[in-house]
């Protein structure tokens, strides 16, 4: 997928990509090793160091290869000289129309965004960045910039786009809703929605402010990856791994929808980078490599320690490829027998039938059972997600476990206009989609904390529809309004 784009007159927010994590097409532990004396950050006022600090319009980017490419783009728009073909060739993949890119920089971007600066960081990972830029042309709207790079080798840019952005993702009808009205509107968008808005108190417990069906289990999509991350954090806390330990990309752990599948086999990733790719880009292949690293038993232990209400809905805890196999490798009656079977039956079926199928990449799906997307995949409640965020947030500061979690969870805000309101923004979302009936599952979860604040906010919005066709743009609009209202709440 190699492209660049200019500007289009945005129709129904057409210029703004939906930044949820596409899954297909997408009480703290009693003994935590170095964190065994876990002290919840919510018990005291915390000075938070932003992940992407900025000063005078200059952002201090993470130490990623992508960061150099991103900063070069911004610097080019501030430079007085024009961009040359040689500069493009040195940084962009050969799959681009490189002479066209020269014209795009010189004839479109520079006039639109002279002396451009980054005004909002939506998401940055080792391979993908989404930022909002603004320049000195008062006639121009903001710019919504996406940039992807290779991880290995010279880290060339493989995708680049800039689109007009008005500054808001909210529909006019959502802009004046009260919190209760926004909650009711969200609930009415899909037949099976759940909403949780609350805070993490001084004891690390979730304290609701407003909720709608928050105790009802829903399909989660990629939100389940938070429990994989929790097991990674525990492994770091126990000294079994270090953040910079290498993980080699192997064919046996490549999964459908993995964004690093095209990297050369044998490429070495750090645990830290894989965790950030798993959370910030919802990368399925990073997920399966980390699932293999920590193991199913360790993840199940996290479910128990966190206090997930019905852990049996998540067990045996499948990785991405295994879950794909449930609704793509077996006929529907066989797949349904697994979904509705006892715990013992599912574990036996997993070992005898699912595991031997191997990785789900390259993709070869003889079936695709839409009927299993909401009832046959990872499920939990909105309250369970809050408890999970509280547990992760309660990791000891200055520990490798917290630092990896903070980078991974903080790498994505999912929407513009969120990170500028908070010192700490954590996000994970997910989706399950059918090529015929659209989205059946769309989920969002944020942890939001102001600098010096003692109690973080949590917003969890889960949407399920057995019939599919969830309207992601409408949900983005109303959740944006909810986030805006939460930002205005007193500490």
Automatic annotation (TrEMBL):
Record-linked SUPFAM superfamilies: beta-lactamase/transpeptidase-like
Residue span(s) of domain Beta-lactamase class A catalytic: 211-431
Domain of life the protein comes from: Bacteria
Q: What residue range is the signal peptide?
A: none
What reaction does this enzyme carry out catalytically? a beta-lactam + H2O = a substituted beta-amino acid
* Swiss-Prot/TrEMBL GO biological process terms: beta-lactam antibiotic catabolic process; response to antibiotic
GO molecular function annotations of the record: beta-lactamase activity
Q: Look up the coiled coil feature and give its residue ranges.
A: none
The protein, known as: Beta-lactamase class A catalytic domain-containing protein
Q: Origin organism of this chain?
A: Wenzhouxiangella sediminis
